[in-house]
Design a protein that fits this description.
The structure holds 2 protein chains of 2 kinds. In chain A, 37% of the residues lie in helices and 31% in strands. Chain A is built from 3 helices and 8 strands. In chain A, the strands form 2 sheets. In chain A, strands 2-4-5-6-3 form a 5-stranded antiparallel beta sheet, sandwiched between helices. Chain A has a two-stranded antiparallel ribbon with strand order 7-8. In chain A, helix 1 crosses helix 3. Chain B is built from 1 helix and 3 strands. The chains are: A alpha+beta, B alpha+beta. Chains A and B meet through strand 1, helix 3 and strand 8 of A and strand 1, strand 2, helix 1 and strand 3 of B.
């Protein structure tokens, strides 16, 4: 053994592309489908939400910082099976936020779903970053598995030559 | 050829545990700092006995005897 480190993730760098990739990964894991990222459809969805008086909650992604050049109307809209809709966007302070809404869902249910999505999105973001950087450094993946507690365990190797 | 392994565990909340094996001294510190920069910030760090072992160095000694 040489060293053991515990690292806290920061959701910065990579801009909207990296966040979109992480959101797409979380969506696949939680059974959501990408509805649209187009501005017109987002406005339409917001209008529908107001008319139908759907419950809605917003969860901030911890330690996140979206690049300033990302517009606030730039969003990722995901549709769940049970009428839950998830939107990933940049708030006015430049933080990344996850908004969950849905008819017939309590705020507590929506908050739980938004928090679960946020966790999975953070995990995907970290996974993408770590794997990209280690592969660029010449590491090879020896094994990879997802444990029952949803932890992703990866073993990489580098030969010194 | 020496091999160096890194075990990485990414929890469901995104916290990362990195276990660096086979690196000694500065090489270990350098990789740790690199991974910390990639992920975010260091919450805790524990160095093990191998860390303090001297780094491997390869040297070739060439001698030439001069004839009279």
């Amino acid at each position: 053994m040489s060293a053991v480190l515990i690292l806290t993730p920061l959701i910065v760098g990579g801009g909207w592309t990296a966040i979109s990739a992480a959101a797409a990964g979380a969506a696949v894991a939680l059974g959501l489908t990408v509805r649209s990222a187009a501005k017109e459809e987002i406005a339409e969805a917001e209008q529908e939400e107001k008319v139908a008086a759907r419950n809605s909650v917003e969860v901030e992604v911890k330690n996140s910082e979206v690049l300033e050049n990302v517009r606030t109307e730039q969003q990722i809209v995901l549709q769940g099976k049970e009428g839950v809709e998830v939107r990933v966007k940049r708030d006015a302070r430049g933080r990344c936020v996850v908004c969950a809404s849905g008819m017939g869902k309590t705020k507590a249910e929506l908050r739980a779903f938004a928090e679960r999505f946020t966790e999975r999105m953070t995990q995907c973001f970290v996974y993408n970053r770590v794997m990209t950087e280690l592969k660029a450094k010449g590491f090879q993946v020896m094994s990879e598995e997802r444990a029952k507690d949803e932890t992703v365990n990866i073993r990489v190797r580098q030969w010194e030559g | 050829m020496p091999q160096r392994d890194v075990e990485i565990s990414i929890s469901k909340s995104g916290e990362v545990k990195v276990h660096i094996k086979g690196y000694k001294g500065k090489a270990c510190t350098k990789l740790g700092a690199f991974l910390a920069e990639v992920v975010g910030k260091v919450k805790s760090q524990q160095l093990t006995s191998e860390y303090y072992e001297p780094e491997e160095k390869a040297a070739i000694r060439v001698e030439q005897k001069q004839g009279k």
